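Blinded run. Sample ID left blank on purpose so nobody reads anything into the name before looking at the predicted structure. Input follows.
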Amino acid sequence: MPAFICTTCGVQYPVSEAPPARCIICEDDRQYVNARGQSWTTMASLRQTHFNAFRRHEAGLMGVGTMPAFAIGQRALLVRTPQGNILWDCISFIDDATVAIITALGGVSAIAASHPHFYAAMVEWSHALGGPTIHLHASDRRFVTRLDSVISFWEDELLELSPGITLIRCGGHFPGSTVLHWAQGAGGLGALMTGDTIQVTPDRNASFMRSYPNLIPLNADTVLRITDTLEPWPFEAIYGGWWDRIIPSNAKAVLSRSAQRYVAAIAGEEGAETY
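Blinded prediction complete.
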């Protein structure tokens, strides 16, 4: 029996004879049900039409994304460290070629995800890669569509996965929305991997939303809490959830300016004309 995958959000459900009646991820107001109706696919079907591509972002950091783009089109990140590799966020598709490449790069010692939209086929990925633990914030437990023994729920505000690799709960987009701080990233100046807990924008700034497809903003206090949470952490670069959503340098200052720009805009200040 297959484990069905929602074609709109890309999240996989437990093995079943028939597709689920509904997708709890898409029915939440941060996502959406396709206007043509709920639809499903399987890993076997995707293997007929898709493949995964790899890109080196910097020393020790590889991107992995599905071609052609599937569901919301995010890519995952493989952080390579002497203590073991960390897979940050996940995608819906995996095949033998992907497993062979990741194994050749040192395998995966742990998986972590920023929020439910990037859970994708995380359990299938873990099983295919030898069963590394998946670390998810407990605040978002109700959105886990495929519970499995490889999943570990963490609480509080921080979780150190290995020396120099720390998960930081920021909240905002989801209650448990998390970023990953990689101390050795950006040439030792530090890097953040944010999914869209912090969304890198086309102008290489940042923004914050409760719902991106439905254009529901966060309030000012929540945005400022995110930036306050990250203030103690050094970082030069931010890697968002898509191939081209990267702030390569001066990212901490960019994030501060972006938060100020956002707060001013929703308050009707600074350049917000009215007619």
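Unblinding after everyone has recorded impressions. The longest helix spans residues 251-266.
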